[in-house]
């Protein structure tokens, strides 16, 4: 059986009258691509925020490789091996793609050891390798602002990989990308994750993406997990079809 990488137990959080997590229990298994689906406001992003230390739950615990990360700072959690990619890529738009990568690599080292030109950092070859892995090496010396949307998403993934994660959490990895490009981006992304041995959890509204790229699916509904199963099991479930997918 696969190892449990991240384990959430009885997570609860409410914002005023809104219950965003109401006893969430979920294990993320090493090597899987787990999709999180559910209606707007169900609490999907809240779960990612709690798992990365951006929100502290009012009850429950999250453990990652045996460490209790419930009350840890985001940067501590990143160093333990959880990275995050966002719906809107978090890039320094006026820096080049390579500079963005090197800034991410420098953040992993902790305290900077005095001034050092980014271009002289020992991580340059590794950052080139990661840009090549996601097919954007030719953009290395262009500013992030110049990148088309799809390439920005890929650079955001390379940035997350620069943090050497064991687990990557993603909020709608292909949102805002033309539908003709979605499959290409997801193919590149899942191939890169498999090659780097990175487990992933991704929030997704597009059921085609879920069917193609998830090994397992967790269905969120009003702060609770309604069902966990394979894409085929989940997408065939009448309640899920009616309440989540809307058919
Ligand atoms: N920091 C916050 N302060 C107040 N309310 C919040 C906060 N974060 C989330 N909420 C509320 O909690 C509920 C769950 O939000 P969340 O963003 O987790 O849902 P979601 O399932 O990711 O939705 P979507 O698919 O629309 O992104 C929503 O009603 C949201 O407005």
From TrEMBL:
Q: Name one GO biological process term.
A: L-valine import across plasma membrane
Keywords of the record: ATP-binding, Nucleotide-binding, Transport
Described function: Involved in beta-(1-->2)glucan export. Transmembrane domains (TMD) form a pore in the inner membrane and the ATP-binding domain (NBD) is responsible for energy generation.
Q: Which InterPro entries match?
A: AAA+_ATPase (IPR003593), ABC_AA/LPS_Transport (IPR051120), ABC_transporter-like_ATP-bd (IPR003439), P-loop_NTPase (IPR027417)
From the Swiss-Prot or TrEMBL record, give the protein name. ABC transporter ATP-binding protein
> A single GO CC term, please?
plasma membrane
Quote the Gene3D superfamilies the UniProt record gives.
P-loop containing nucleotide triphosphate hydrolases
Gene Ontology MF term list: ATP binding; ATP hydrolysis activity; L-isoleucine transmembrane transporter activity; L-phenylalanine transmembrane transporter activity; L-valine transmembrane transporter activity
Domain ABC transporter, first and last residues per copy: 6-247
The record's annotation in SUPFAM superfamilies points to: P-loop containing nucleoside triphosphate hydrolases
């Amino acid at each position: 059986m696969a190892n449990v990488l991240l384990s959430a137990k009885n997570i609860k959080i409410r914002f005023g009258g809104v219950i965003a997590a109401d006893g969430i229990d979920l294990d993320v298994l090493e090597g899987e691509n787990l999709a999180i689906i559910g209606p707007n406001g169900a609490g999907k992003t809240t779960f990612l925020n709690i798992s990365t230390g951006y929100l502290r739950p009012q009850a429950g615990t999250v453990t990652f490789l045996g460490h209790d990360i419930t009350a840890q700072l985001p940067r501590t959690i990143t160093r333990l091996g959880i990275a995050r990619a966002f719906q809107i890529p978090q890039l320094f738009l006026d820096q080049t793609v390579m500079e963005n990568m090197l800034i991410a690599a420098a953040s992993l080292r902790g305290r900077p050891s005095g001034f050092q030109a980014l271009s002289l950092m020992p991580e340059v070859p590794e950052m080139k390798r990661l840009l090549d892995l996601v097919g954007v090496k030719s953009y290395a010396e262009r500013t992030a602002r110049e990148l088309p949307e799809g390439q920005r998403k890929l650079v955001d993934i390379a940035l997350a990989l620069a943090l050497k994660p064991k687990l990557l959490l993603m909020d709608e990895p292909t949102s805002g990308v033309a539908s003709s490009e979605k499959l290409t981006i997801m193919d590149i992304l899942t191939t890169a994750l498999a090659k780097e041995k990175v487990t992933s959890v991704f929030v997704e509204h597009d059921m085609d993406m879920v069917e193609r790229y998830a090994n397992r699916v967790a269905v969120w509904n009003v702060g609770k997990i309604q069902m966990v199963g394979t894409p085929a099991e989940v997408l065939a479930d009448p309640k899920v079809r009616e309440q989540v997918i809307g058919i």
